[in-house]
């Protein structure tokens, strides 16, 4: 397994993974636009040269805003999401960012479990934020300090 910075050349793979993970998956062009931004932080996990997971975040002032993490459905429950987040956290730390901010659908149990296990705390709710096939779902807004998770030797 290799985790490396993602580039615009990875846009099609990231779109494939995102579309397999979310109802409204982003296109290759969406990812090309995100990845071309100076404030983007993105990593991709490769297993034998195949992209199996990725994460995308933005620098926003002193905050790191996590936009998305996605894992190939066949590779889920293997720790990829945690490794992706920790790689992004390391990037945020080296860039001097102070706080992570994210939002996740209230019904996205795997994501919420990951974020809580990595030290995120709920700081707000955006009512009926996501439009899903099952109806509107609240977004939980969560935060934690950069570099404070269990992957960085925090006490």
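Sequence proposed for the structure above (155 residues):
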């Amino acid at each position: 397994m290799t985790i490396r910075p993602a580039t615009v050349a990875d846009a099609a793979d990231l779109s494939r993974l995102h579309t397999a993970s979310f109802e409204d998956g982003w296109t290759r062009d969406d990812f090309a636009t995100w990845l071309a931004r100076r404030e983007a932080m993105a990593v991709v996990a490769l297993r034998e040269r195949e992209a199996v997971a990725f994460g995308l975040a933005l620098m926003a002032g002193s905050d790191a805003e996590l936009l998305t993490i996605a894992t190939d459905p066949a590779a889920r429950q293997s720790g990829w999401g945690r490794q992706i987040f920790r790689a992004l956290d390391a990037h945020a730390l080296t860039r001097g960012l102070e706080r992570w901010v994210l939002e996740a659908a209230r019904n996205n149990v795997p994501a919420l479990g990951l974020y809580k296990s990595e030290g995120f705390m709920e700081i707000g709710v955006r009512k009926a934020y996501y439009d899903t096939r099952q109806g509107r779902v609240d977004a939980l807004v969560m935060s934690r300090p950069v570099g404070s998770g269990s992957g960085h030797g925090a006490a």
